[in-house]
Amino acid sequence: MLQAARAWLNQDPDPETQAQLRALINAGGDGDSAALSDLHSRFDTRLAFGTAGLRGEISAGPNRMNRVLVSQAAAGLATYLLRHAAPGVTPSVVIGYDGRKNSHVFATDTAAVMAGAGVRAILLPRLLPTPVLAFAVRHLDASCGVMVTASHNPPNDNGYKVYLGGVNNGAQIVSPDDKAISDEILRVAADEHVPHLPRASYETAEETVVQAYIAETASIAHTPRAQVNSVYTAMHGVGWDTTRRVLEKSGFDLPTLVDAQIAPDAAFPTVAFPNPEEPGAMDLAYETAREVNAELIIANDPDADRLAVAIPDISSVSGYRRLSGNEVGAILGWRAAALATPDVSDPGALACSIVSSPALHAVADAYGLRFVETLTGFKWVSRVPGLVYGFEEALGYLVNPDSVRDKDGISAAVALLSLVSDLKSEGTTLAGYLERFSEKFGHYASGQISVRVSEVSTIALVMTRLRESPPTHVGRIRVDEIDDFRWGLGDLPPSDVLRIRLTDGSRVMVRPSGTEPKLKVYIDTRSTVGTLVERRAAAQAALDELDRGMRALIE
What we know:
By secondary structure, this protein is an alpha/beta fold. Helix content is 39%, strand content 20%.
């Protein structure tokens, strides 16, 4: 292991990770058990390249994000692109980066290595949101796109998302491409020395790429019928500049800004975890909203591919309530369905992941659209044929599939603002619109249980127990049937997921987290009987019962 660490050190061009690794090697060579344990965590395994690309803590070693790992990934990806290019065609890659630590250097390393391998490499002109990169893949007709970001991960993380052009339409990679790319990366890691990888000059994209994204995104909204008093936070990320330009082009008044969070800052000084879903992350936005009596709060995560929304709520201590991803997903889906002009040959589809609210199914049925469920991840949602709109409960929304084949927190914000503007011109609010949704489609309630474990094997034991001894009841509600996705189900590929259907129409999904040592449970209930108050009460009562029952089964 020490030999592997020394070999890695000899390849590392980064003075910071060099110094870090050298100190560990010296201490480990002297028998320091803590240093040896740390080295084992870095060198016993390698950060896996999968359908989410790469993501991890910035540090030295193959099980961390660093310049050696990124250079190897770029060289492997370049080989994949060259091998899959049509005869006589030079493949191309467009590369974007956000404001996280090392994002720019990882992006420029990627561009130089790609160019050195013979791929046409185009770097976006400056730090930009992930949706702009996803757009650029299609706009520039590139073979591939790479976005250097860790989205809403902790501050010292970074990552590497890969998109493919051509028949993939600019969507994120899926199997078997992820495995083929991973194999090339592992070959580079085994056979090549990073300092010896050829590097060459690369292109920098014109600002016209960003301008085209802004124009396309602004076009999804009509001229505002009423201006909305809103508040915006970028969560220390890169969303504001692009969002501002889109809102100006759309004709919206600019929101009041959460000043402390508006500029890109890799340290994320005001939030422990830069994710709008995390407790406390929206506190400064609530404070700003109270000061200006805002009608709406919109928040992007650091790379602006997600959107959080909050509305006034006098029953809340903060004065505002953040809507769940399922609530926002359902109302944006209703808007999309109402605006859709179905083709006779294909009515188009509304799509969401299997763990997102089935409320979208009711909307699709009401408007004569197809409803499609996919596995978790926009790499799947974005690939649905005839897609009109797609969402995931984790604050991801795809409202403009003709332009971007990934979740996009900026276009979703424009669509949401446009909806609120229309509602205001009619004398109502987003809260009123949610009530209208429950009256028209039924009231849906959603909950989630997330159990963090110290040993990942614990999750497998729980999943095995549920499979081998399937419950007949969850709490006091009888189980109707259990669907096991382990070998695939319908058109869906295999996945370690269980779907528990209850006799009252409720649904429970159980799956391991794809990125953390957690078991996740998603609960969805619905009531269509009685008044709005009665529907809410019934759906919430079922949710509470299923929450208690599932905790007893898994904890």
